Amino acid sequence: MLESLKKYVYEQNMRLPKLNLVTFTWGNVSAVDRDKQLFVIKPSGVAYDELTPDDMVVCDFEGNVVEGHLNPSSDTPTHAYLYQKFPKIGGIVHTHSPWAVSFAQAGMDLPALGTTHADTFYGPVPVSEALTKEEIESDYEKNTGIVIERTFKDHQIDPMAVPAVLVRQHGPFAWGETAAKAVYNAKVLEVVAQMAYHTLQLTRNDSSVPQYLLDKHYYRKHGKDAYYGQKK
Amino acid sequence: MLESLKKYVYEQNMRLPKLNLVTFTWGNVSAVDRDKQLFVIKPSGVAYDELTPDDMVVCDFEGNVVEGHLNPSSDTPTHAYLYQKFPKIGGIVHTHSPWAVSFAQAGMDLPALGTTHADTFYGPVPVSEALTKEEIESDYEKNTGIVIERTFKDHQIDPMAVPAVLVRQHGPFAWGETAAKAVYNAKVLEVVAQMAYHTLQLTRNDSSVPQYLLDKHYYRKHGKDAYYGQKK
Amino acid sequence: MLESLKKYVYEQNMRLPKLNLVTFTWGNVSAVDRDKQLFVIKPSGVAYDELTPDDMVVCDFEGNVVEGHLNPSSDTPTHAYLYQKFPKIGGIVHTHSPWAVSFAQAGMDLPALGTTHADTFYGPVPVSEALTKEEIESDYEKNTGIVIERTFKDHQIDPMAVPAVLVRQHGPFAWGETAAKAVYNAKVLEVVAQMAYHTLQLTRNDSSVPQYLLDKHYYRKHGKDAYYGQKK
Amino acid sequence: MLESLKKYVYEQNMRLPKLNLVTFTWGNVSAVDRDKQLFVIKPSGVAYDELTPDDMVVCDFEGNVVEGHLNPSSDTPTHAYLYQKFPKIGGIVHTHSPWAVSFAQAGMDLPALGTTHADTFYGPVPVSEALTKEEIESDYEKNTGIVIERTFKDHQIDPMAVPAVLVRQHGPFAWGETAAKAVYNAKVLEVVAQMAYHTLQLTRNDSSVPQYLLDKHYYRKHGKDAYYGQKK
Predict the structure, then answer these.
(1) Residues in domain Class II aldolase/adducin N-terminal (chains A, B, C, D) (predicted)?
(2) Catalytic residue flag (residue D228)
(3) Angle between helix B179-202 and helix A179-202 axes, rounded to 10 deg
(4) Do A137 and C227 lie within an 8 Å CB cutoff?
(5) Sites in chain D below the pLDDT cut of 50
């Protein structure tokens, strides 16, 4: 079932090592079929150079395996919960890309310091609260999804306008309308984290961009008045 | 029209990923035909591995498309304005190369700390003022060109002697007598930004080179008494 | 003798340059045959692209060469001592990977700042004491092993739970149940050292993970209740 | 003339881009024939991928061209002076490798912080004094050699025991008994500069290694009691 979606999810997973976003098996991409309320995800702990489209696992929105000969990613309950709660997203990416992890470990939001950031993220990328002992010891991966959703609700951030989060002490999740856009956003996150790190080391002054620059660059690429790129 | 210039501009654009100056589509090169008062530029948002010489777009000095089946780079009005105001430049490069962006985001001039810098840039590479709300909300890309020109006028810098700028909160533009030299200058800018960053972290002392070292290295490579390289 | 082990040790050594863990010849992998009380190790100072399985050297637990036409790694007595004292390890890796070396040179434990660390190391990776003048001037490489063992004993760390050490002023040793796992652990060490470095530069606050997160992530991947990856 | 030396110098020059020590044409290697009092050096400003053995230039110890159809490296008078004054060296390398340049620009000696350094450099790699206005404005490249020699004399450093220098505001020169060893030393210099930078950012404490560790590691690899590597 979902053969073409499996092939697509396989291809999007294979972009992670090409974009230097993963070490060993530390990353996964999923994509959803909203009609069927199912999503396809990478199997757990399988090396990228051994992966095939047929290894992809089909899961439902509770994280149960519907089809597949391998265990799905251990982060599957996080993906499932986000598909439930963020109804506009079509794909999710989790990595341990090192610059984004550094901000997650430092417990710091990734500030919007320039147009590279503003082109993709309409404001700072938030760091989540740390999971509590109770949240970690039971349903850890689902609770990771709950904490992500709560982060966006508490800060009143639209997850489609800022399509990524830094899970504190852990690392980034990114998403998008499609899995391809989610992978794109995961890479942008890593690049702007690298830029922000060096900017913050050069100057501890707050060099966040003003709202009007955020508006300009974000809406130059998104929404009905976008004029970057080619007409579809 | 301008078929050989299109091929040349295509080739210079393709150097950007090879020199590790771009992520995704975040860069563009243009070159000018001064006789015809036209320039050729990369189309907007097209991936480098899908680009062909035929995709290049011909524009006039107001930034209007004269020929081409694709939209030109969204930065086209910046290029157009710079070709108007800097009459000796033959090519322009814009990238989001991460070390140069870090200085642009920090709002810091890139100081001349050594001979690697002095060989190409006859003094600090200036950071521009931030664009105002009004400048951003109307004719943003043209105003970016205006702010660049103003930066060089206000600081009395010759744009041929310091062929690059850091647009604050945004990133670098570089230029040169030819597009090939502009690409070269864009790469030098990235390398000397990396070196300057680490130097500044090692010592916060002002370690700018003296004027006579700047003279020696810049004129060893430029002007009538240059003796670096081979006679042409 | 031990032909298949030689081939295996050769292959594990060849992973070091692929994983960007060595410059020139600065690294070595060994693996043990516990029944025979022998181990196989890379020869000293031979370039990776000239290495063959047949060049591997067989040594006993005193570090004496039992078979081989080349000198074994100068670090052989360290390997020998660790095989004696850490009875559960099957392979050992030594490198001068630059992020791990930076912590070793700074004389700092590598703190557990996130789940990437906790997935592999059940607590901080300790830095050893510096060897004394006497320890350096006689039996230096054996004494390196003695200092490593003492580090784990003094801090009451189980070397199977934290399978790596930073030898002060020198660099990392990693180990594991197999040489393949030791190489894996050596790479994880390098990646988490990079992440920890940047985290510590962003915030000097203690951002070590709590014990319950360490438990969760370490036991998600290790021991009888592990659920990461595929059933063997 | 000196055809085999030209081929050798060509090959050693071609190692620089492979070892990631040069951007564009910013590096050169020479090797000497002590009997003939001549040395062979890379031509000035020629791209590495266009270089051929036949392009190499033969010079005497005053820096005059004896044979060659191209201009020699602009740094030729520095090489010539060092061959005069350091009678045991067989090859010289100059690069603008970025970590070494960062220390040169900061005006800081590269301290000996660990065994990776001590294996090759028997103590800190010194930064030279800055050249004076007069030294820069006349015979600049020869004066660079004079300043290097003076640095070693003033600090009573044996150039064979510490086979590299950081020319202040400029960058590294490295040398060795052969050009191949000089290239090796240039790479070690870059790697230990990277490690030292990160160590110094982690701790501003003086973590220089003691004399007895320097002795142990340097003499483990050099001199009559060396036991690293294979017998020749």
Answers:
(1) 7-197
(2) yes
(3) 60
(4) no
(5) none
**Phi and psi for B59 in degrees, rounded to 5?**
-130, 160
Indicate yes or no: CB of B198 within 8 angstroms of CB of D74. no
3-state secondary structure of C24: coil
Tell me the residue type at D1: M
Report the residue of C96, C102, C170 to disrupt the D interface, i.e. the one with the largest count of D CBs within 10 Å: C102
C-beta of residue D92 within 8 angstroms of C-beta of residue D29? yes
Q: List Cβ neighbours of D46 (8 Å cut-off, separation of 6 or more).
A: B229, B230, D25, D55, D70
For chain A, say whether B1 makes contact (Cβ under 8 Å): no
- For residue A95, which phi and psi values (nearest 5 degrees)? -140, 175
Please provide the average confidence, as pLDDT, over all residues in chain B: 96
**Which tokens go with A95?**
């990595």
Residue C41: strand pairing partners? C30, C57
Name the minimum distance, in Å, from the CA of A112 to any CA of chain C. 16
Q: State which amino acid sits at residue D152.
A: F
The answer to whether the CB of B42 falls within 8 A of the CB of B36 is no
Cβ-defined contact of D207 to C103 (cutoff 8 Å): no
**pLDDT, averaged across chain A:** 96
C213–A131 CB contact, under 8 Å: yes
Position A232 scores a pLDDT of: 64
Q: How far is CA B8 from CA B17, B27, B60, D49, D130, in A?
A: 16, 16, 18, 20, 42
Sheet holding C164-167, edge to edge: C65-67, C57-60, C38-41, C27-33, C91-95, C171-176, C164-167
Q: How far apart are the C-alpha atoms of D21 and B188, rounded to whole Å?
A: 15
Report the pLDDT value the prediction gives residue B231, as an integer from 0 to 100. 75
At B193-216, the pLDDT tens digits run 999 999 999 997 888 999 999 999
Domains parsed from chain C with CATH numbers: 3-221 (3.40.225.10)
- Is the dihedral angle over the CA atoms B58, B60, B61, B62 positive or is it negative? negative
For helices C98-106 and C179-202, angle between their N-to-C axes, nearest 10 degrees: 60
The three-class DSSP label of residue A164 is: strand
Catalytic pick among C119, C122, C184, C218: C119
Better-scored residue on pLDDT, C229 or B113: B113
Could you give the strand order of the β-sheet that contains D164-167, starting from the edge strand earlier in sequence?
Answer: D65-67, D57-60, D38-41, D27-33, D91-95, D171-176, D164-167
CB contact under 8 A, A74 and C207: no
- Write the residue in B116, B187, B216 that is nearest to D101 by C-beta: B116
CA atoms lying within 13 Å on the CB side of residue A26: 24
Out of A43, A130, A137, name the one closest to residue C216 (CB).
A137
pLDDT tens, residue by residue, C2-54:
999 999 999 999 999 999 999 999 999 999 999 999 999 999 999 999 999 99
Tell me what ipTM this predicted complex has.
Answer: 0.95
pLDDT band at B232 (very low <50, low <70, confident <90, very high): low
Name residue, tokens 């005053």. D62
Question: With contacts defined as CB-CB under 8 Å, which chain D residues touch C70?
Answer: 230
The whole-angstrom separation of Cα D43 and Cα D70 is: 6
How far is residue B46's CA from residue B52's CA, in Å, rounded to a whole number?
Answer: 10
Query: What is the three-state SS of chain B?
Result: CCHHHHHHHHHHHHHHHHCCCCCCCCEEEEEEECCCCEEEECECCCCHHHCCHHHCEEEECCCCEEECCCCECCCHHHHHHHHHHCCCCCEEEEECCHHHHHHHHHCCCECCCCHHHHCCCCCCECECCCCCHHHHHCCHHHHHHHHHHHHHHHCCCCCCCCCEEEECCCEEEEEECCHHHHHHHHHHHHHHHHHHHHHHHHCCCCCCCCHHHHHHHHHHHCCCCCCCCCCC
Q: Return all residues near C220 (Cβ < 8 A) that are at least 6 apart.
A: A74, A140, C119, C226, C227, C228
- Going from the C-alpha of B123 to that of each of A59, B159, B216, the distances in angstroms are 60, 11, 12
